[in-house]
Amino acid sequence: MPMSRRSLLTLAAAAAASPLASALAQGMPPLQRKANYRVGFAQTESNNPWRIAQTDSMRSEAQRRGDAFVYTDAAASAAKQVADVNSMIAQRVDLIFLAPREERPLVPAVMAAKRAGIPVILLDRRVDGAQAQPGRDYVTFIGSDFIDQGRRAAEWLDGAVNGSARIIELQGTTGSSPANDRRKGFADYIAAKSGMRIVASQSGDFVRDRGRQVAEALLQAHPDATAIYAHNDEMAVGAIAALEARGRRPGQDVTVVSIDGTRSALQAIIDGKMGATVESNPRFGPKAFETLDRYAAGETVEHWVKVPDRFFDRNNAAQLIGDAY
Ligand code: GYE
Hints:
alpha/beta, Rossmann fold, 2 domains, 6-stranded parallel sheet, 6-stranded mixed sheet, 12 strands, binds beta-D-fucofuranose
């Protein structure tokens, strides 16, 4: 039956107003609805339990759904990660989940996927917002509020030390969004606190042994430090070893606060060596694939799919360690 002119017009108007149409108008690659997908996951590195928990969560959700999973590990190199994404493009995967190691070097990978017509969802770290944007260059960013994580760590520390501390900060990977934002959230909070001062701040690249080495050097230069703020638990655990090597008691002489919620961190809290850790939840699988489904269905996907984070300290660490990674 031929359609009336009016219903054709209504259809056209509805299509123009639909989120799919607006995504396409922005040049975003569409994703066709299918029973099963072949997705890429470009991981940054696998040298810490957080990364391993994230990969496990992604892989097991793909398996549960029957989607094929093309996995790469950039082994802590942004250049390799760009090459990994290019190889996924060459393999024509349906969609790429990318955990961009650093904000700027991964922009070309996002743009190459867009040009090739393959949608990208960013996981756990952002790319430079001045160069690439959600809803235009990639679907969305799924991840935590890192500024708030830094603020929560500062707020807890402020209470634990009664507003007075000489703080050593161990930063994450230079140029990565969690390192930039965890630094900012913490600094903004203590700016208004005259007794809270960062005496030294250096990158330990989110790695346990780097954290230990950097903490060792900074403790040597600042033997009067009374607190350590690490951007992740692996570096905090390294810093605890550095303190013990110097004969300083973590948790008594020096207060340690961190971010992630790994099993070793919860154990350190139970042992009284770490004060608290703000959760950064690595279990992305269900949310990542649900977001893929929503995009394929033509739904409007918000520009930031927020991951909510808990808080671990001596009040709940023993109770929650069973579920930790
Ligand atoms: O805190 C850290 C990991 O990007 C949120 O990266 C992630 C961070 C996490 O290597 O342990």
